């Protein structure tokens, strides 16, 4: 501390002291300057030694907070943090409040007609009405069960009686009517009368010469129905189960098997009603190896039942192969020539060692086209089952031939015609140019 300052300090202390001693006294100066007169009283001595340092004073009161600093600029956005784990499923919320009543829907479709109500009570009996008009005739009754079978002779005689007694009566009635018309026509004018008379005369002539045609099959007259028929000599086509085969020399057509192995080609025809008689015929030709009933006899082939390929030939059955009607068999040759007797017709010569299957009995024809030499060809020159072309003495196959006829218990079963062989058509065939089956 320099001396001047020390003096000023002292003076200030004096003034302050004086101010405290006197009554309140203001120092006022518009310039803010104060001028003092100081009288120095002595020369200060040398500075004494430094005193002992006093105790540290108590800490001053805390100053006021400073003003808030200026706000810094905004930091950059942080990177997106990883997703948190899936939260636990919340509890089922409370059922919502019942909705408001909807507006009414459109009018529904018309309902179905209700069932009849209960029948009302029976009313009181009314007065008796007038008699009604005669009713229409009732419906035709059901077909009765068939009566006892007539034998063929009875049927024939009956039919002939009916035809011979009825036909003249019909003829007479028509003639009588024509005569009556003639009498009436006489009153017509000349030109018209002549015209009508000519017409009537022509009618009389045709009625008078009318032949009442009897349908006569297998020697029996009756209402025969034809259920199966084709005749390729008359340009008919083959049943689809067969194929057309041609005689290369003459162009003659016939129907042959399609089978490529042991078995039969089946032609099924409906019977169109009840029948107790079957009458029919077939015309065929031997082709290749035809072995009669060998497929039935030879164990390897083992064709032991009616529904099998038991024959080389044509098998006719009814009722889904259940009932035998007739069999047309074709033997290998007219006599045994170093081949199994079972491949021959039972009627072939030398000796007839073989027999037909028991389920066909005698209801078959059997013939061969070849005489005594086994040749692989079609024997077009010898029609089978026609009673002709059995040249070998002792061969009796031509004794039974032509139309077959069977009388059976009543049935309306369909009829099956099968062309059968022990092998395919290339090996064994029966080209057939006519089949005709009638039932009654
Ligand atoms: C058979 O058919 C052939 C060819 O279709 C024809 O030329 C012939 O005139 C026919 N014969 C008969 C009799 O209809
Ligand atoms: C053939 O007939 C026999 C009885 O003779 C029968 O056991 C068999 O089931 C029949 N087969 C066919 C395919 O109809």
From TrEMBL:
Annotated signal peptide: 1-20
Single annotated GO MF: extracellular matrix structural constituent conferring tensile strength
Pfam family, one: Collagen
GO biological process, one term: extracellular matrix organization
UniProt-listed InterPro entries: Collagen, Collagen_superfamily
Sequence ranges of Gly residues compositional bias: 78-87
Region: Disordered, residue numbers: 45-131
GO CC, alphabetical: collagen type XI trimer; extracellular space
Keywords from the UniProt entry: Signal
Superkingdom, taxonomy of origin: Eukaryota
Biased composition (Low complexity): 45-55
This protein's record includes keyword Transport: no
Coiled coil spans: none
Protein name as it appears in the record: Uncharacterized protein 20
Biological source species: Halisarca dujardinii (Dujardin's slime sponge)
